User: Fold DUF2726 domain-containing protein from Candidatus Falkowbacteria bacterium RIFOXYA2_FULL_47_19.
Amino acid sequence: MPGLLIILVIIYAVVVLVWIIDRIRENRGPIGRETFWPYRKKEFLLTQTEKRFYHLLENTLSKGYHVFPKVRLLDMLHLDREMIGKKKLNPEKMLARIRQKHVDFLITSRLNVRPLLVIELDGDPGDTRGREFRDEFLNEILSDVNLPLLRVRAAYYYDERKIAADVNELINKNRSK
Assistant:
């Protein structure tokens, strides 16, 4: 009987030890250290549609351009402090309106990384909630800051020559302003 009791105590100790180790592992990141933040790396930065279009842009556009995907408006725009003062606007509210928004692609000059054109893929299935209001908001802002916008219908196949021609036309038209 005492032998059975010892075996049960050992089994219980092993189960408790396994449970404790499992709890510790739940709170550890991929390299085994304690993690506090509930974030994990996405497997892919771009959707399949965005990735296809990104590669098309990279392979089609002139070497004089950079293509940046998923750029926040806050990284492309800044507040005009003079206008904020004249119109008595709340700067934090104005920043909050653009803080969480991004564009699908930003085309810049390769030489000085100056923003030249924004490209939005319309109709990507992963991006539908509140899209109409967001699109109008984006149209207005980009028009106000004189940054052309090219809207392209998301598709499996794109006419590379047409996309390149549209990009070059909008950039050159905007440069002449």
